[in-house]
Design a protein that fits this description.
about 425 residues, alpha/beta, Rossmann fold, Trna Endonuclease, Chain: A, domain 1, 3 domains, six-stranded mixed beta sheet, 14 strands, about 45% helix, elongated
Length: about 425
């Protein structure tokens, strides 16, 4: 019998995505019908869940029932009862997912399921369990003991991001060409310092920060820098030999040509900013990578080597409705059924780390909801105590560079060797 899954929709979309995926994992007959009870505030999340289900190779039908802004037990119960009635009239088996929304709505949905004798479930994301509501036939008779682990295999970064309002996850970089260079800097602190100084020291390429105009960026291409592990940097396409014993930023002829055109052309035409950003992007990447961005690749590699995560991605662009501007994130992955979000900072500017924690919390929640696992990965040996306290309050795990090779460093519970 085909299933009609009746769900309460709120800002936390994962419980309402995991439930239909559990039926898919159990090979329940499709198409699955999703009946979403929404409020004016949560209505847009219904479409997000349906789009995410399609990303997961499902093709559910979707119908929504608009409730009031603050539904009580009785209103929710009536809506669930009506949805159950319609499902039965069309020959479908109604199942109630009473996870999510307000407590009053959950109580109303649960009571309606119990009175009508229909199966129900609760998605316990914290304990990673699908719980039987004991309101009708056993949910195991439908799901066959499907676990979070099995459902998690159906997820990737795109699916979870779409469920939380993103329209796309794109522009993921291939980290492999940069891994040898990043690994060298991770293992050799003197080489890392020399690399950083080549960019940020008073005699470095950008001692006062990035240039403010096209001519300044163009000038960077003509300046020599000294680098450790130069062979790896050349192989990664970051620099090229200058012929004078040093190295220069490696860019293609198109980048140089665009900068020349911007330097001599008008600065106030309609698409100047777009052309400017495109022209300086490749140079910004190299400068940022040499000055600490390499740590992102080291974290990407450590996350993959841990075998804990799936779909580990470096430098992804995430955007869409509810996201405002597109955001580039350092490293993201899937941990079970959650997004794992890694923000990578070389450190040094300790006063800014507290602000960074707040930004991590906001951006991770926007990407994966409240269930996201969050990491701040630092090159500095030890963050200040105040930063550690605030990170603990926000449930952000701080990982320093020397801990990356420690077994279990990304595990969610328990201390690991090397923790300060």
């Amino acid at each position: 019998m085909e299933i009609s899954l009746i769900q309460l929709i709120s800002d936390q979309t994962m419980p309402n995505l995991l439930a239909p995926l559990a039926f898919r994992a159990a090979a329940v007959k499709e198409p699955l019908e999703l009946v979403h009870l929404v409020t004016p505030h949560s209505a847009r999340r219904s479409d997000d869940i349906a789009r995410a289900a399609k990303q997961a190779q499902m093709n559910p039908t979707l119908s929504t029932e608009m409730l009031s802004a603050m539904p009580d037990i009785e209103e929710t119960g009536r809506a669930v009862a009506q949805a159950v009635k319609q499902a039965r009239e069309t020959g479908r088996l109604p199942v109630v997912n009473y996870t999510g929304a307000t407590k009053l709505m959950s109580i109303g949905a649960f009571e309606a399921a119990r009175e009508l004798g229909v199966p129900s479930l609760y998605v316990d994301t914290d304990r990673e369990l699908f719980l039987d509501g004991n309101t009708g036939p056993r949910i195991d008779s439908l799901l066959g003991g499907v676990t979070f682990q099995k459902v998690g295999k159906l997820l990737n970064v795109n699916i979870i991001a779409v469920a939380n309002g993103s329209e796309q996850v794109t522009n993921s970089r291939d980290a492999k060409p940069f891994l040898a260079f990043a690994s060298h800097l991770l293992a050799d602190s003197a080489a890392e310092r020399a690399c950083f100084n080549a960019i940020r020291d008073k005699t470095g390429l950008c001692p006062n920060g990035e240039p403010k105009h096209a001519a300044g960026w163009l000038a960077l291409l003509e300046r020599d820098i000294k680098l450790p592990a130069a062979d790896d940097a050349i192989a990664a396409g970051l620099v090229r030999p200058s012929g004078k014993g040093g190295f220069r930023i490696a860019v293609d002829d198109g980048t140089r040509k665009r900068l020349v055109e911007l330097t001599h052309g008008p600065r106030h035409d309609g698409d100047y900013r777009k052309r400017y950003a495109k022209a300086i992007g490749p140079i910004q990447f190299v400068v940022g990578f040499l000055a600490g961005g390499w740590l992102e690749v080291a974290v990407w590699d450590a996350a993959k080597q841990s075998k804990r995560f799936r779909d580990v991605r470096w430098s992804v662009d995430i955007g869409g409705k509810g996201f405002g501007e597109h955001l580039e994130e350092d490293v993201v992955a899937v941990d079970g059924v959650r997004i794992a979000y890694f923000s990578c900072k070389r450190g040094g500017a300790k006063a800014k780390l507290a602000t960074t924690l707040e930004e991590i919390d906001a951006r991770a929640r926007r990407l994966g909801g409240s269930f996201t696992r969050r990491f701040l990965c630092l090159y500095v040996p030890q963050p200040p105590p105040a930063v550690e306290r605030r990170a603990k309050e926000l449930d952000i795990r701080i990982v320093t560079a020397h801990q990356l090779a420690t077994p279990g460093v990304f595990d969610p519970v328990g201390a690991v060797a090397g923790d300060g």
